[in-house]
Design brief:
Layout (H helix, E strand, L loop, with lengths): L3 E4 L2 E4 L3 E8 L7 E8 L6 E6 L6 E3 L7 E6 L4 E7 L7 E9 L15 E2 L3 E6 L1
Parallel strand pairs: 2-11
Antiparallel strand pairs: 1-3, 3-8, 4-5, 4-9, 5-6, 7-8, 9-10, 9-11
């Protein structure tokens, strides 16, 4: 099992930057594919970005492509979501998720595949 704790959320002005972190417990972090999802008030939770076990493959939602970057440091059991040029529409609770991955299996935006979730961190972008 793995436990996930997000941090780094807060308030930021549009055009600024913010880095979210997700720290995982356990000694097998490199066995997990990771993802970030978000949920805005009154909306369904949606995919933001995902990264493979090794970090060699990433993908992100079209709405954040070119602005958000996902990376991981398996030596620190941490995944990072770098948010550059955020917009007010990016305001949401951001959740980190993990899926124990088999080999090079890719789960991407499939929320139902991720069995472990953090508690979420609020990001508020003001104009």
């Amino acid at each position: 099992q793995v436990q996930l704790v997000e941090s780094g959320g807060g308030s930021v002005q549009a055009g600024g930057s913010l880095r979210l972190s997700c720290a995982a417990s356990g000694r097998t972090f490199s066995s997990y594919a990771m993802g970030w999802f978000r949920q805005a008030p009154g909306k369904e939770r949606e995919f933001v970005a995902a990264i493979s076990r090794s970090g060699g493959r990433t993908d992100s939602a079209d709405s954040v492509k070119g602005r958000f970057t996902l990376s991981r440091d398996n030596t620190k059991n941490t995944v990072y979501l770098q948010m550059n040029s955020p917009r007010p529409v990016d305001t949401a609770v951001y959740y980190c998720a993990a899926k124990r991955a088999l080999g090079s299996a890719w789960y991407g935006a499939k929320q139902s595949e991720y069995g472990y979730w953090g508690q979420g961190t609020q990001v508020t972008v003001s104009s």
